[in-house]
Amino acid sequence: MKWITRERPKIDRIASPWLIKTFIDKNAEFIYVPFSDVLNKAKEFDAIPFDIPNVEYTHYEEKSTFDYIVKKYKIKDPAILIIADIVRGADTDRHDIAKESAGLLAISAGLSYNITDDYKLLETGMVIYDGLYSWGQHICTNRIICRIVLLKTCCTKCTINF
User: Fold this and answer.
1) 20 to 30 A Cα–Cα from 51, which one of 16, 20, 118, 136?
2) CA 137: distance to chain centroid?
3) Which long-range contacts (CB under 8 A, 24 or more apart) does 104-109 make?
4) Over the stretch 115-137, which tens digit does the pLDDT of each residue have?
């Protein structure tokens, strides 16, 4: 499966490919092109456009493209639900959604300043999301840690009352 979006990826255009490669299609290919070329190149390359207006895989209301992919593919992994909040907060500049969002935005912006090749940026970003996923899994293995770190429940495992 090929996917295509606009160049100079940051939050959603790195997080969504990570999610796709990790949970949907490990052989997925990602193409970055200028915004004005995305739809034409999508047809040319038989690729799925994402994270641009007026396509299926995009933002809906206050939700990110990452959120849409989680919903469409019915991904219920509690660590992914934690990451979805962080990505949404960082991508929509609503850091109140998850306190980690500001840090993710800072890291993503810093990487994009340092790495000018979009494919190298994607490769580096994949490592960031691997780490975020491992952190989320660790948090979800302990209900008390989950509630303390997230200040809310992330899943049905976290039904402990304080």
Assistant:
1) 136
2) 16
3) 104/11, 104/128, 104/132, 105/10, 105/11, 108/10, 108/11, 108/14, 109/10
4) 999 999 999 999 999 999 999 99
- What does the pLDDT read at residue 54? 96
What type of residue is 121? L
How many CA atoms does the CB half-sphere of 126 hold within 13 Å? Answer: 13
The mean per-residue pLDDT over the stretch 14-41 comes to 98
Q: Provide the angle, in degrees to the nearest 10, between the axes of the packed helices 101-114 and 11-19.
A: 100
Q: What is the DSSP string of the chain?
A: -EEEEESS--HHHHHHHHHIIIII-TT-EEEEE-GGGHHHHHHHHT-EEBSSTTSSBS-BTTB-HHHHHHHHTT---HHHHHHHHHHHHHHTT-TTS-TTHHHHHHHHHHHHHH---HHHHHHHHHHHHHHHHHHHHHHHT-HHHHHHHHSS--SGGG----
| End-to-end Cα, the chain, rounded Å | 46
Range with lowest mean pLDDT among 41-50, 66-75, 153-162: 153-162
Cβ atoms within 10 Å, residue 150? 18
